Amino acid sequence: MTDPQNTTQNTTPKTSAPSTPVTVLGLGLMGKALAAALLAAGHPTTVWNRTPGKAGDLVAKGAVAADSVADALAASPLIVVCLSDATAVRATLAPHRDALAGRTLVNLTSGTSEEARDLATLTGDYLDGAIMAIPDVIGRPEAFLLFSGAPEAFEQHRDTLSRLGSATFFGTDPGLASLYDVALLGVMWGTLNAFLHGAALLGAAEVDAATFAPFANQWVSSVTGFVSAYADQIDRGAYPAEDATLETHLATMKYLVRESAAAGIDTDWPARVQALTERAIEAGHAGTSYASLIEVFRGKA
Ligand code: NAP
Questions:
Q1: pTM of model > 0.85
Q2: Is residue 194 part of a domain?
Q3: Which of 19, 109, 189, 285 could cross-link to 280 by cystine, CB 3.0-4.6 Å?
Q4: How remote is the CA of residue 33 from the centroid of ligand 1, in Å?
Q5: Pairwise CA distance, residues 187 & 135, whole Å
Q6: 88 lines ligand 1 (CB under 6 A)
Q7: Is 79 in the pocket of ligand 1 (CB under 6 A)?
Q8: What's the chain's average pLDDT?
Q9: Would you say residue 158 lies in a domain?
Q10: Residue 263 in this model has a pLDDT that exceeds 50
Q11: CA-to-CA distance for 153 and 169, rounded, in angstroms?
Q12: Assigned domain for 280 exists
């Protein structure tokens, strides 16, 4: 397994010169933020967007707006692409394989790992990236980006890429960054769904969401401790109930389902959580920790 190489510096470049010219293809919400952060860091920045007229603010800050993809590619050794999806990236870049040769392509468009591996065939110097941030925080320390693909390309450009947020490299499989991306988004949706369900439940008792939020945040912070402990159990393949058994979890889940039904709010979310736990118990994991649900997710229970 490749150790992620973590690089968090946004201010002290170590490898590529701060003046590396960069081209950004795609000026949607995210593409504009990427270009603005590169400009702010002093990189000569060329931008292109399918629909013209979106580069005004960036040009006012010093960007050059290219009229064509060919002109945009010719302008820089480092090409960052951030479009709606992989189909758009392929449609935009496949006709320009020759121009991509000798340049590094960094694809920050979301997609599946298979799509990333397919796009990696566009050029030898390909990095796939996942942006774990919203446009407003690009270039700030709380933004983090995940990369995989050509190691030399990451090494050469990691300081430039670190201008966007802290940058971690996961190795040569171009699909791995996308896989981390969807796994982390799953963590986000799971957490947000639980918060929203809880807010609906307390809302039925006339507790507003802003009152609930600090307690939810404090509890999420406690849960991060469970994540680390369970990761250790998962990697050992042993799930001792050092904190609580699955049966204890199941009993309290049923209270959540009953409270939801009594309040007239949707029971789908807690009922699914209950069903997952029942499957783990039926598969022989009674008396183990909550981490044994990994076997249900693996399709083994
Ligand atoms: P967006 O605002 O909808 O922008 C989409 C961009 O894609 C526009 O520049 C659009 O050009 C371009 N595009 C779409 N289809 C195209 C095609 N066939 N050919 C050429 N260009 C095409 O989306 P966004 O928020 O910037 O997101 C871009 C990517 O970043 C997505 O993959 C998204 O998942 C990822 N991302 C976004 C966020 C976020 O918070 N926004 C966070 C992490 C990752 P036109 O102007 O011509 O339509």
A1: yes
A2: no
A3: 285
A4: 11
A5: 20
A6: yes
A7: no
A8: 94
A9: yes
A10: yes
A11: 11
A12: yes
